[in-house]
Amino acid sequence: MVARLCPLRAVTVAAAVVTIGVVALPARANSTPAPRVVVKNTHDSGPGSLRDAVTNAVDGETIKVPAGHYRLTSGELSTDVSLHISGAGARKTLIDGTGTSRVIEDTSATAKLYLSDLSVENGNSQGGDGGGVETAGALTLVRVAVVDNRAGNNHQIENGGGIEVSGNFVVRSSLIAHNLGYSGGAAEAESTLELINSTVADNQAGSATVGDNGVSGAIETDDKPASVVNSTIAFNRCFNGSTCGGAFYNGDFTFTNSIIAENFGYLDNGHRAGSKANPASQTNCDGPVAFRYMTAGYNLGGTVDCGLTKPTDQQKVNPRLGQLRDNGGPTDTLALGKDSPAIDRVPAARCPKIDQRGKRRPDHHERRCDIGAYEHQDP
Fold first, then answer.
1. Under 8 Å CB-to-CB from 327, ≥6 apart: which residues?
2. Of 23, 371, 58, which is closest to residue 169 (Cα–Cα)?
């Protein structure tokens, strides 16, 4: 694996503001409170374990998972009901596939899986899609880190390195990073996507092995509508020639206040990726129908391939991002350098009130906020 790095429709501002509203679980059909279970230990099985809670969950239940490292040694967690799994924070509640299995699967097409304040890590689907999470229904992530997952096994790369979602997919204030898959290094979304205040970085579609190809280094959407708001998509890679999409390949994307830059593709020309005969080429938004990438304004693109053509957009610009690291908040972020052209570009009324870390937008008493998931904080 390569070393980690240190628009179909115009939308109105009003529509963008609606998009960044608070994500919540659907209302229950009756007034009966949803059942609530608290995990008692970090054991992989038995009474009080996370596995026991998920296996015996009823529809609409909330499972509270305290701080701890939950290592799965006997396979993935599996359910077929709507479920909210809530941790104590993405740096504190770690659900670990130990490189031997996917972390969690929801097999019901009508179910809604909601994950908050936890990490999904080290999953390996061992021949199937979705290295960390696979859902037949809808999925919502809030303040979640999906990191270091792999779709497939040692001999075959499958779809959705971190996540495979068949239903509607909402990501808010979350991180998807260091995942490996074929179609969608970070995730494959087969229905609608809303990516809000989030970072998608250092994911990989395919591998450097000659002929081991991929599509969409970041997220593959299967041509369904996708809204990207105040998010940062950077340093993702794709191995399948100049048309694989370092970040995105085709789709129905509308970008608002977002950074899509420093994503790279490699040729499938028989030469080792990264060699003189096969250097990296920045390719952020690719595919056969270029006009399917649209802008709602105030975006920054590293190339001109994302259709960022409004007067408030910037194209062929380096956002001057730092390394993916702990910059405060529940998940790692890509900080903006003090001279980044993404700083103070967006009217405050167009931004979420906080950034991915929970820091106030705009900083101090300024009237403009920053492009992307990270709000630069002046001294």
1. 333, 335, 357, 374
2. 23
Average pLDDT value for residue range 125-153: 94
Q: Which of 131-140, 212-221, 279-288 has the highest mean pLDDT?
A: 131-140
Query: Do residues 301 and 287 lie in contact, with contact meaning Cβ atoms separated by under 8 Å?
Result: no
| Cβ-contact 327, 357 below 8 angstroms | yes
User: CA–CA separation, 267 vs 60, rounded Å?
Assistant: 47
Domains of the chain by residue range = 13-23+34-343
Helix/strand/coil percentages in the chain, nearest 5: 5, 35, 60
pLDDT tier, 292 (very low <50, low <70, confident <90, very high otherwise): confident
DSSP class per residue in 266-279: E--SSS-TTSTTS-
CA 158, 199, 78, 185: dihedral to nearest 10 degrees? 0
Burial class (CB in 10 A: 0-12, 13-18, 19+), 50: buried
Whole-number average pLDDT of the chain: 88
**And the tokens for 2?**
């390569």
CATH 2.160.20 fits 13-23+34-343, yes or no: yes
Q: Is 213 helix (H, G, I), strand (E, B) or coil?
A: coil
Q: Is pLDDT of 5 > 80?
A: no
- The residues, any chain, with a CB within 8 Å of residue 155's CB and separated by 6 or more, are none
Query: 367: exposed, middle or buried (C-beta count within 10 Å: 0-12, 13-18, 19+)?
Result: exposed
Instruction: With beta carbons less than 8 A apart as the criterion, state whether 163 and 186 touch.
Output: yes
**Alpha-carbon torsion angle 265, 262, 223, 298, nearest 10:** -160
